[in-house]
What we know:
Chain A is elongated. By secondary structure, chain A is mostly helical. Helix content of chain A is about 75%, strand content about 0%. The longest helix of chain A is centred in the middle third of the chain and has 30 residues, at about 150-180. Chain A has helices spanning about 15-35, 45-60, 70-85, 90-100, 105-110, 115-145, 150-180, 185-200, 210-220, 220-235, 245-250, 250-275. By secondary structure, chain B is an alpha/beta fold. The longest helix of chain B has 16 residues, at about 170-185. The chains are: A mainly alpha, B alpha/beta. The interface of A and B includes residues 30, 33, 104 and 111 of A.
Amino acid sequence: xxxxxxxxxxxxxxxxxxxxxxxxxxxxxxxxxxxxxxxxxxxxxxxxxxxxxxxxxxxxxxxxxxxxxxxxxxxxxxxxxxxxxxxxxxxxxxxxxxxxxxxxxxxxxxxxxxxxxxxxxxxxxxxxxxxxxxxxxxxxxxxxxxxxxxxxxxxxxxxxxxxxxxxxxxxxxxxxxxxxxxxxxxxxxxxxxxxxxxxxxxxxxxxxxxxxxxxxxxxxxxxxxxxxxxxxxxxxxxxxxxxxxxxxxxxxxxxxxxxxxxxxxxxxxxxxxxxxxxxx
Amino acid sequence: xxxxxxxxxxxxxxxxxxxxxxxxxxxxxxxxxxxxxxxxxxxxxxxxxxxxxxxxxxxxxxxxxxxxxxxxxxxxxxxxxxxxxxxxxxxxxxxxxxxxxxxxxxxxxxxxxxxxxxxxxxxxxxxxxxxxxxxxxxxxxxxxxxxxxxxxxxxxxxxxxxxxxxxxxxxxxxxxxxxxxxxxxxxxxxxxxxxxxxxxxxxxxxxxxxxxxxxxxxxxxxxxxxxxxxxxxxxxxxxxxxxxxxxxxxxxxxxxxxxxxxxxxxxxxxxxxxxxxxxxxxxxxxxxxxxxxxxxxxxxxxxxxxxxxxxxxxxxxxxxxxxxxxxxxxxx
Lengths: 280, 332
């Protein structure tokens, strides 16, 4: 058997960045290849949002009045988009916790690859997967009567805001996945943390009717800003806001800022924790 | 690339997990191109040792150089030069065998084509070609270990760490892995191998380091370790109990040591030096005294006996321990 020469090592900073990116993409491919083996993982991003769309559109839809008028189903869809994107944090947390438990993480740690690649690759793969979810939800929305009214550019901008928020959520999930260490705990903790977060918001009902304390929380919830940004960009009802929270007066800027802040906190935290912890 | 004469050099390594002191000051030297066997029972600190040397853990105290680089300060340099095959096979269960190897190749920044070629070569060499396109989850234990070892050899690293590579394998797979390891060393690879199987250490290792409760308690070649227990002995079982006294005299004439007699089993045991020549002498003496023997054997102490003695297992009789104490003084 022939032997393979040890590869050259990157010398410049630019080359190191290029290698780190290449490592991340290798890991992304690995995670996407897993889906082929465990396709039921896609149910999280496909079936679940469809159920939510149908449940809310037909069960709650008749009872909820959209302030300023308009169709509840049009009001609802941006909320469902954002909720399902927020749940991406759970998917990622479980995935990372799974990886940390398995022997493969020792392989990655003993290789001269970029330390951040295992995490970056995971978040990119999960985000890619969520794009499929958004497409499924959009189709489902179109079927029940949702439309984007502001033209292609604004519609794409709306999805862009959503994906940036999704990317932030994957890094929140990454951090959870590293600190809890078992997939079961990651699932439970992620759900307990995120489920209320997606309801104490403008996702399914307008925040006007909430008690003051809850409304304050709901108005400043990053998820609300993302939902409101989507409603504005898609031209869906419920975008007009009469309250005092800055984040809902300027939802697009607010959503982008929240996402960037979450990324700025959780990327370094996660990478640091990943470097300093080892699998069992 | 040049490698220092000492592939691995560790001094005073300490590691504590909570209340458990996993390593309490371990020194270790492995010369280039040799196999060093780290032998010890479960929980002795073998895996901790390997994890420190492969940069997966940082020691609390002490330092270690691998391939001439510090495992803490120059970890990335170390990672370019080592391969690791673990107790828990470090393969991705949801990828095919081929995809596993290609992924590792890509992570070493081989081109796509080179990574594919290398994967094919390794699959062939490790007898995994037929299973190449199946996911590793369905592999048998032996196949998984082979894939794991293949993954650690994607770039032919000069130093290989094998953490209990054959634990849980059937005898056939074990022999296969031993052959592969011996091949690698013949090709110049340095191997640090941990094992709880004495046979494995005896068979493969140039040097054996016995480790227990986080400390090195003995080191040397297999022969040196066996000599600590007291060399060879001759066992004779005679047919008729009434000839025991004659047999003792016959043995005295053949060897220098005083035979130990167990009348119940009609067994005589005598420590000897010079092995086979003494055995011939014993046969001759017994024959001329017309003593019939049921069993006659020259026994070398097994590494098991060494191990049990060193790790303080009650199998060693108190008298034996006294005589072997000078041997302990060599190491501690």
